[in-house]
Design goal:
By secondary structure, the chain is an all-alpha fold. It is built from five helices and no strands.
Length: 140
């Protein structure tokens, strides 16, 4: 007769205000999602497994779209904030960018043994990628 699916309980979340959304978007979208595209592109180019490299290329494109969407949301949301709120959002984005190199190197460290075959950057390479990403954003 088939499998009866388990009952799923969903806890309702409260709606977030524009400031909370803008703050989250600035860090998670504009910085982390956009940089994920850079990391995936690096992996796609350096991965030894051609099938995996092709998959990583698709993921990189998807992450790039997420980053683009985050910046579009920022351009729409942030003008709705007060000057003080915009300053907080800009500062949070700057802090996330400043921490990106070390954060990424730390997250990749446990995978060091498998990094090269999978195209994952070393800690030093991740730092270079993060600094280049931050410089590109600053120049944009």
């Amino acid at each position: 007769a088939g499998v009866v699916p388990a009952t799923v309980e969903v806890t309702p979340t409260r709606l977030r205000d524009v400031f909370a959304l803008a703050l989250d978007n600035a860090v998670e979208g504009c910085v982390h999602e956009a940089f994920a595209a850079v990391l995936c592109r690096f992996q796609a180019v350096t991965c030894r497994d051609l099938a995996l490299a092709a998959d990583l290329d698709v993921i990189a494109e998807d992450e790039a779209r997420h980053g683009e969407l985050a910046w579009a949301i920022a351009r729409w949301l942030e003008p709705q904030l007060t000057a003080a709120q915009r300053a907080v959002v800009e500062r949070a984005r700057a802090v996330a960018l400043a921490a990106l190199a070390e954060r990424t190197a730390r997250q990749l460290a446990p995978f060091a043994m498998a990094a090269a075959p999978l195209g994952m950057p070393s800690g030093a390479q991740a730092r270079v990628l993060a600094h280049g990403f931050a410089a590109a954003l600053a120049a944009a």
